[in-house]
């Protein structure tokens, strides 16, 4: 009997409470920094601390990332252009 079969059998047993599954994802940080050396150093530290890191060299790249990805935090030294 495989692990999946055993789990399914246990879950079907009378009196077995419904399990609660919590998926803990790493917080996602977007770094927007034009200097590649600085950006890489920040990213390295954040990854070591357990964050998922996305890097962008400019605001255009950051905007593309934000169109398709939910981030938990954004670090930037690049000011938002005036509209």
What this model shows, in words?
This protein is of the alpha/beta class. It has a domain at 26-83: Response regulator (Rossmann fold, 3-Layer(aba) Sandwich). It contains 3 helices and 3 strands, in the order αβαβαβ. It has helices at 3-12, 36-48, 59-68; strands spanning 28-32, 52-56, 73-76. It has a 3-stranded parallel beta sheet with strand order 2-1-3. β1 (28-32), α2 (36-48) and β2 form a beta-alpha-beta unit. The longest helix has 13 residues, at 36-48. The protein starts with a helix and ends in a 7-residue tail after the last strand.
Keywords:
83 residues; Rossmann fold; 3 strands; 3 helices; elongated
Describe the structure concisely for a colleague:
The protein is α/β, with parallel strands linked by helices and about 80 residues long.
Quick one: CATH superfamily of one domain?
Response regulator
Query: How are the strands of the biggest sheet laid out side by side?
Result: 2-1-3
User: What is the CATH C level class of one domain, in words?
Assistant: Alpha Beta
Helix and strand sequence: HEHEHE
């Amino acid at each position: 009997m495989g692990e999946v079969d055993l789990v399914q059998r246990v879950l079907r047993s009378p009196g077995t409470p419904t399990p609660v599954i919590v998926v803990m994802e790493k917080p996602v940080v977007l770094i927007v920094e034009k200097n590649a050396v600085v950006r890489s150093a920040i990213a390295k530290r954040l990854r070591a601390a357990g964050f998922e890191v996305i890097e962008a060299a400019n605001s255009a790249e950051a905007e593309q990332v934000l169109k398709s990805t939910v981030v938990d935090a954004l670090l930037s030294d690049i000011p938002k252009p005036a509209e």
